[in-house]
Amino acid sequence: MYLGCVRAVDYLCSLPEFDGKNVVVTGGSQGGALAIVTAALNKRVTALAPFYPALCDLTGYQHGRAGGWPHLLTERTTPDASLPAQLATIGYYDVVNFARQITVPGFYSWGYNDNTCPPTSIYAAINAVQAPKTVVITPISGHWRFEETNQQSLIWLKQQLAK
Description:
Layout: H1 2-14, E1 24-28, H2 30-41, E2 47-51, H3 83-90, H4 95-99, E3 106-110, H5 119-126, E4 133-137, H6 147-162
Parallel strand pairs: 1-2, 2-3, 3-4
């Protein structure tokens, strides 16, 4: 999936309609995760706007906090012989590790009532981003965004395109 997103950007940049400079990725939940991963892996991306990204802080439960969707290692996970291998592998998919590689501006948004992608898991990823970031938190929202937040993101994205 991650490689598919990288290749999708390559393909879009090969089209005659491409302006040669602006590549924006956005999405919510798993799409938010893929926006972060794509921006980290494909340096043609110039801005990103992920909403309530999934796949963040996948090992959070192992450290006493909520882990990200799909909750592979919950607080109920019983350690067995395969756990060390799972922990060694899961980092290759954790969005936190990709967030560290972001170099372009981003608009990040999530809510505090999200039971699918816990806010603590999202904070783990967004705090790892060192590039310029705009963070819009809607405390009462869950695994969705309000139209107001959507409009804010569109205004922000248009400002990025104008630069």
